[in-house]
DNA sequence: TTATTAAAACACCAAAAGGTCTTTTAATAT
DNA sequence: ATATTAAAAGACCTTTTGGTGTTTTAATAA
């Protein structure tokens, strides 16, 4: 579905938010271990998320990653869009730029409801809502 | 949705089948032009499809690509699977190997119906059915 | 004020995806 | 037979993705 960077980013963000709910500010080593993603790559991705403004961080002792609680909840779609663009949830199955309701590819009509469902899913679910679900147990973030 | 190779392959296959319905056996140059894909890359992809047994070809004068009409219709899923595996229509949104009904990621339940719909779509539609639709007009294969 | 800690910055590397081009082989029409 | 045509084979090349590692900077606790 999504590329590796997006997958690690989503899992990492949900994990950080989950820890924040517990009053903890995790660092790169902890996040990478818990979401079972490559250590250095996870660090790079978290830092990119900070630069993109999705996440905050502090250096030094007691440092780590956390969310600005004054900001609104973060929809998955916003993160996906920022990392890999809209190719996953928009765009034609045949790769045609002109494909649309007026000028459809042979799959367009059948694909439209699926695309709409994906859009809805990643537009409505947020890092916060998923962290909340995760906290209640029954879901996993690693392996 | 799909990667470039898959997109060009699907468009190319549908175009070849469409031409076959008209009693014509197109070559690389014609296919690449009509589906508006890179010439040499299209050639490479069509040749791969021949090696994979999805398509037939003859060299020399009057040569080109065509389908073995004694074979059953070719579902898109078979082509997609052969080129890029099942990552697009199977697998977890969070990239977790263990994710499933027993051990779900936070998105699993919501994603399940979408994956099922994609599976159905590419499992039911075939190169032949799309070529038939294309022949009736109203759909495009290029741009 | 100086160790210590942890993120930021940056350099680098490997594999895969996407794409181009030339040479070889096979079919066919003359 | 041979010229012509068109696919097959294969050698490269570029960009993107995925990943690793070291050095620098900033925060804090002692």
Q: Which tags fit this structure?
A:
homodimer; 143 residues; DNA-binding
What does this protein structure show overall?
2 copies of one chain form a homodimer. Chain A is mainly alpha-helical and 143 residues long. Chain A contains 6 helices and 2 strands. Chain A has helices at residues 4-21, 28-35, 39-51, 76-84, 108-124, 127-135; strands at 56-58, 64-66. Chain A has a two-stranded antiparallel ribbon. The first copy, chain A, starts with a helix and ends in an 8-residue tail after the last helix. The interface between A and B is large, with 42 and 42 residues.
Brief digest:
In chain A, 52% of the residues lie in helices and 4% in strands. By secondary structure, chain A is mainly alpha-helical. In chain A, β1 (56-58) and β2 form a beta hairpin.
Lay out the secondary structure.
2 copies of one chain form a homodimer.
Chain A: H1 4-21, H2 28-35, H3 39-51, E1 56-58, E2 64-66, H4 76-84, H5 108-124, H6 127-135
Antiparallel strand pairs in A: 1-2
Helix pairs in contact in A: 1-2, 1-3, 1-4, 1-6, 2-3
The structure holds a DNA duplex (30 and 30 nucleotides).
What is the CA-atom radius of gyration of chain A, in angstroms?
A: 17 Å
Mean pLDDT of chain A: 95
Biggest sheet architecture of chain A: 2 strands, antiparallel
User: Uncertain segments of chain A of ≥5 residues (pLDDT<50)?
Assistant: none
Ends apart, CA distance between termini of chain A: 16 Å
Which sequence of SSEs, written as H and E, runs from N to C of chain A?
HHHEEHHH
Based on helices, strands and strand pairing, what is the structural class of chain A?
Answer: mainly alpha
Most extensive chain-chain interface:
A-B, 42 and 42 residues
Helix content of chain A: 40-55%
From the spread of the alpha carbons, the general shape of chain A counts as: elongated
DSSP strand count of chain A = 2
Counting copies of identical and different chains, the oligomeric state is homodimer
Beta-strand content estimate of chain A: under 5%
Strand order of the largest sheet of chain A: 1-2
Helix segment count of chain A?
6
């Amino acid at each position: 579905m999504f590329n590796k960077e997006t997958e690690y980013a989503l899992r990492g963000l949900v994990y950080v938010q989950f820890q924040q709910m517990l009053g903890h500010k995790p660092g790169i080593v902890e996040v990478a271990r818990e979401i079972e993603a490559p250590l250095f790559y996870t660090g790079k991705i978290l830092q990119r998320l900070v630069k993109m403004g999705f996440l905050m961080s502090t250096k030094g002792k007691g440092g780590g990653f956390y969310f600005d609680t004054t900001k609104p909840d973060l929809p998955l779609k916003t993160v996906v869009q920022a990392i890999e663009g809209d190719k996953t949830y928009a765009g034609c199955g045949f790769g045609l730029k002109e494909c649309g309701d007026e000028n459809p590819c042979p799959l367009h009509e059948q694909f439209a409801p699926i695309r709409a469902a994906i859009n809805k899913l990643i537009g409505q679910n947020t890092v916060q809502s998923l962290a909340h679900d995760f906290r209640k147990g029954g879901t996993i973030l690693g392996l």
